[in-house]
Amino acid sequence: MAWKNVFRGPNGYRAGWRFLLFLAILFGVQSALQELLDYIVGHWRVAVPPWPDPTVLIVQDGTALIAVLAATLILARLEHRRLRDYGIPGRDSFSRPFWAGSIFGFAAVSLLIGLIAMAGGYSLGQLNLHGVALVRAALLWIIASLAIGFAEELLFRAYPQFTLASGMGFWPAAFFIAVAFGALHYFTKPDERWTDWASVSLLALFVCLTLRRTGDLRFAIGFHAAFDFAAIYFYSGPNGGNVATGRLFQASFHGNDAITGGPLGPEASLLVFPVIALLFFVFDRLYRRTGAGRVQAA
Question: Of 16, 11, 292, nearest to 165 (Cα)?
Fold first, then answer.
């Protein structure tokens, strides 16, 4: 086999090389932005709040979003494609599919918290903030949740999913990225357990299904943003061993960690798995693929 065949196939440069180029550009831009942030924090002696704080997440995920958009735009130019070819929405980002995904995300967490409460593992508690402070925290957490949703969905489900799928097929690529997404949570957050890796990977597969059926990432972004908003802010669950700054309630989780998720939060609860199964079932019934390959909302 000629050396050029290692790099090029019948449709141009092979998917694996294009994916590695995307990662190289992404890490390069991300590193440059991080250096700039570190300089600003050090030069101006900015006090960084403890994680998870909405302002910290806005900066972190906003930076990640800039980096992934830059990398995607560069590759799109080289490949003569549009951002929409990778499932990235434009001016219609907050149209109906986004809000449908938001309802799914908030409802999933609500059901999960309800199951934990029925098992005696959750107490809502009193409001954590009042007045202007409550409104300010709510707005910051809405922005932070949107930053997380856009940044992580574009990072994992846009160019990487499109490109790897062109080489190995949609679902093999989806499984690979979902496991990698779960592994990233497992190895980069403290005190992680297999349940969190598994649940995060399954949720990633679910949003891949929404991408497959709806054709772009609007539903997935809405789902991801609303899921995090509900779990971290609204129901005030822990994440990575800490509770959020400005959370809505002084909620408490008590009892067996297998039921509550313990310090990792509700997504590490064993009760998350029937909720995820229900998500797949309901979405599949509402968004059916027609014989012509188009998706029809029931």
Answer: 16
Quick: pLDDT tens for 116-147. Answer: 999 999 999 999 999 999 999 999 999 999 99
Structural domains of the chain, count: 1
Can you give the residue range of the structural domain that contains 141? 4-297
Separation between Cα atoms, residue 152 and residue 64, nearest integer Å: 8
Q: How many residues does the chain have?
A: 298
Of the ranges 54-58, 97-101, 196-200, which one carries the lowest mean pLDDT score? Answer: 196-200
pLDDT at 213: 95
Rounded to whole angstroms, the Cα distance separating 172 from 119 reads 37
